């Protein structure tokens, strides 16, 4: 953990000057940030969304983003991301390895970041032109690990040289009737999660 924190801190310090000048980000609702394990879930419209959130939270509040495997396979960049605590998921299929990794981190008290819709979405439409819908992965992870979900809203529009305000919502524990949750229960939780995320958008204006 110490080596991951060190690389994370170094990369944050390298990236921060650019973002603080060109794409400054700030977070409101920091009083909602859990100090123990939590699952951060946000809307996703731009490639730089994870970096914007990380910059807004500050260097000392480390997240473990789940990133698509294509990024992790890029020479040098993939190695740096891995050393900084990012882990890969093979999208489009059930990636058991990524799920087990996320569960391990959450149960050990770390903060995992993922995007419930699974891909970039603008105006309710994903990059493939399909109507967006939340996947059940976040719901399943929260239920099975017992950690809270932290909804996060990241504005789609990010103006150069002007602050982008990211909103951190209140953590909550999704409830299920069955012991481990069913596919139907996960779907309901996923839909409610996206409603919570988008409801935070009014505070970002």
From TrEMBL:
Keywords: Acyltransferase, Transferase. Transmembrane segments: none annotated. Residues 38-157 form the Phospholipid/glycerol acyltransferase domain. The keyword Transferase applies. GO terms for molecular function: acyltransferase activity. It holds the Pfam family Acyltransferase. This is Lysophospholipid acyltransferase family protein. It comes from Pseudoflavonifractor intestinihominis.
